[in-house]
């Protein structure tokens, strides 16, 4: 048994925990407030997760999380709740929640003992071309690749969520979409976090009258906290989806509105592209870490492959003995990340177009080979590290949510528009933003995308191809049952954030709230810099510098820091659910019953 679950708190700690729970949980969740639940946490815990006995939703926005929890309480399963949450986020969290983007869903079905991986990543339109974002000089036209209608891939979210509902859900489509429709029609109060994001998006909206009309007042001022945002055009689109299913989006009036938006403004998506879009159910990638099974998304997500690859490399070290976020543990973590991202740049792409050596990349044999090349006294240089030879055999405004229901079914879902508010352009009359996922392709081998990630021929643009992603919805199993459901937004940092969330629980014995709150680091091969959050000590960073690691500093000599990811996770132990929504996001929430 995980050692954290053997501890028994003192009476005062129990009382404090009960008070915290009473403040954070709805009334129907407080039935879990008993000594058995409290015993899951040690009296030395600095952060306490939300505890529930039956079902839990952890998401990046509170209203949408409550929608999912209400679906669970009404008898829906984890998939029903996931689809309801996904559509609700398209209303309440439009900077990343979407019906105009795409993503990946991992589903663990308790009774069937099956894990399904649903790929609803966007695809390149039929008119897309390999060099479509190159100027005559041969340089990449970054504005066109990121902030134009041509940067939009064929959206997959609607097809993917409905595929999950039809194959693995239990409730009628109309009931599942009803909360999102109501939120769009009647509106919802803008939160402080959302108001801040709208203020930041003001310049992006300036180029598009539709986006300005949808997300700003008629005088051009962004909505402020507490004001009610209504989205009647989006409500009409959601009504069409609820009544007609995928046909209500990929055919008919909505599809025509999308095509008109493209034709009038230099975009590429046609009604035929929309009609031809299909989600794909794939076999997940599987690995292990010290007795736990790790299950994650396969290509065209690079997330699952490299989460497992990094964990495989680190499995050879006693991280607990080295200590959390010490120079020695970070040293090994960075070197594992460096090697994984070098492989990502060379090997990863859409498996429908290129052969991806996934089995070799996640093999223990290959991890041992990479580990043997790590000098634990001195930093490697990324210029000296190239992709290995495995044996043959994602601003960062993505959003992630995790769900576990009363029957032990679990969903880990990550979806995105790519950058905050995607391309910044909305489909006039349909009420939703367009993605800019075409930038996730390699516009030119060796040219970085918006997240600084390099790519090669494996991820070159081609009609119908799915761009490489870093999204990594992951489920950790213990004795065949979900133990940890996790994932994160964060562009190129998603992989490293998910790795650290898993390590914090499995290697460092943290509860899920502590694991989520802990300071993170990131390295992605190129550029050759170690990014850290506040909370990693300056002394540790100075030691790493002395070993040759490059750590950015400010003009005054202080270390630079940035926020890395926003993991939303759930653990299950001793019959209880422990949820943690990442407090790096002001609007995040874990809600259970």
Kindly describe this structure.
- By secondary structure, this protein is α+β, with helices and mostly antiparallel strands.
- The protein has two domains: 94-104 and 116-281 and 423-459, no CATH class; 283-396 and 470-583, Gamma-glutamyltranspeptidase, large (L) subunit, C-terminal domain (Serum Albumin, Chain A, Domain 1, Orthogonal Bundle), CATH 1.10.246.
- Helix content is 36%, strand content 14%.
- It contains 22 helices and 18 strands.
- The protein has helices at 11-24, 35-38, 62-73, 78-92, 142-146, 157-168, 173-186, 192-200, 202-205, 209-215, 232-244, 247-250, 252-265, 271-276, 303-314, 319-322, 327-347, 358-361, 364-372, 494-506, 512-517, 538-546, and strands at 50-52, 56-59, 102-109, 114-120, 188-189, 228-229, 280-282, 285-289, 292-296, 398-404, 410-416, 474-478, 481-486, 521-522, 531-532, 568-573, 576-581, 589-592.
- The strands form four sheets. The protein has a seven-stranded antiparallel β-sheet. Strands 7-4-3-11-10-2-18 form a seven-stranded antiparallel β-sheet, with helices on one face. Strands 5-6 form a two-stranded antiparallel ribbon.
- Strand 12 and strand 13 form a beta hairpin.
- Helix 17 crosses helix 22 (538-546).
- The longest helix is centred in the middle third of the chain and has 21 residues, at 327-347.
- It is globular, with a radius of gyration of 23 Å.
- Mean pLDDT is 91; it is low at 3-32.
């Amino acid at each position: 048994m995980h050692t954290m679950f053997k501890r028994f708190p003192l009476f005062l700690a129990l009382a404090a925990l009960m008070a915290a729970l009473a403040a954070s949980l709805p009334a129907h969740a407080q039935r879990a407030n008993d000594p058995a639940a409290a015993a899951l946490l040690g009296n030395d815990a600095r952060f306490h997760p939300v505890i529930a006995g039956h079902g839990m939703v952890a998401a990046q926005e509170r209203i949408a999380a409550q929608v999912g929890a209400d679906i669970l309480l009404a008898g829906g399963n984890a998939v029903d709740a996931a689809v309801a949450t996904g559509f609700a986020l398209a209303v309440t969290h439009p900077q990343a929640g979407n019906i105009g983007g795409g993503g990946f869903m991992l589903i663990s079905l308790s009774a069937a003992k099956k894990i399904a991986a649903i790929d609803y990543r966007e695809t390149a339109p039929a008119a897309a071309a390999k060099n479509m974002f190159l100027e005559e000089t041969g340089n990449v036209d970054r504005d066109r690749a990121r902030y134009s209608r041509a940067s939009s891939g064929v959206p997959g979210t609607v097809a993917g969520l409905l595929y999950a509902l039809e194959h693995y859900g239990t409730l009628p489509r109309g009931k599942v979409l009803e909360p999102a429709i109501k939120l769009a029609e009647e509106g919802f109060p803008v939160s402080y976090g959302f108001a801040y994001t709208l203020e930041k998006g003001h310049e992006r909206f300036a180029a598009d009258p539709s986006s300005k009309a949808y997300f700003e007042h008629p005088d051009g001022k962004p909505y402020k906290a507490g004001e009610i945002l209504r989205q009647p055009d989006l409500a009409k689109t959601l009504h069409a989806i609820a009544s007609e299913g995928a046909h209500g989006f990929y055919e008919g009036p909505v599809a025509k509105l999308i095509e008109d938006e493209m034709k009038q403004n230099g975009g590429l998506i046609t009604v035929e592209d929309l009609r031809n879009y299909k989600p794909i159910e794939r076999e997940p990638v599987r690995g292990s870490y010290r007795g736990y099974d790790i299950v994650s998304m396969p290509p065209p997500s690079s997330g699952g492959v490299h989460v497992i690859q990094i964990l495989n490399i680190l499995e050879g070290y006693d991280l607990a003995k080295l200590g959390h976020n010490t120079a020695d543990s970070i040293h090994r973590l960075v070197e594992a990340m460096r090697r994984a991202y070098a492989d990502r740049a060379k090997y990863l792409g859409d498996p429908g177009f290129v052969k991806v050596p996934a089995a070799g990349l996640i093999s223990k044999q290959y991890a041992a080979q990479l580990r043997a090349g790590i000098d634990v006294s001195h930093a490697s240089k990324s210029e000296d590290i190239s992709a290995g030879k495995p044996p043959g055999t994602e601003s960062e405004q993505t959003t992630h949510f995790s769900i576990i229901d009363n029957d032990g079914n679990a969903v880990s879902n990550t979806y995105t528009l790519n950058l905050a508010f995607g391309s910044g352009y909305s489909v006039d009359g349909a009420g939703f933003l367009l993605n800019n996922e075409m930038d996730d392709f390699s516009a030119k081998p060796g040219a970085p995308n918006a997240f600084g990630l390099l790519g090669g021929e494996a991820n070159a643009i081609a009609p119908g191809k799915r761009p490489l992603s870093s999204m990594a919805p992951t489920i950790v199993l213990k004795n065949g049952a979900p133990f940890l459901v996790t994932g994160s937004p964060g562009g190129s940092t998603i992989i490293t954030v998910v790795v650290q969330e898993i390590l914090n629980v499995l290697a460092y014995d943290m509860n899920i709230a502590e694991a989520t709150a802990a300071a993170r680091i990131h390295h992605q091969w190129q550029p050759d810099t170690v990014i850290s959050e506040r909370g990693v000590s300056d002394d540790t960073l100075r030691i790493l510098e002395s070993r040759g690691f490059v750590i950015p500093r400010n003009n005054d000599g202080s270390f630079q820091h940035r926020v890395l990811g926003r993991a939303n996770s759930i653990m299950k132990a001793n019959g209880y659910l422990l949820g943690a929504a990442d407090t790096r996001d002001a609007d995040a929430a874990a809600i259970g019953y």
